[in-house]
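Section 5.1 Outputs to date
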Amino acid sequence: MIVAEKEPLTVTSYRITTAVQNPFDRFGEAMPDGRLTEPSDGKQYRLRDAIMYSRQLGRPLTDSEMAKFEV
């Protein structure tokens, strides 16, 4: 059996216009300082317990419920 090698596919021109650009490609534009999250409010939570409680309820916790898990 003879296996022929295929020549690699070459792209001669590749251009993305801003009108067609995928939003993922502009991911960091809204964060000029490089942060991916909001600044911390300084509060600490027992997250493992909060996650377990949220799973028991089957829904996200409200702010008042989350306050119960504040350290």
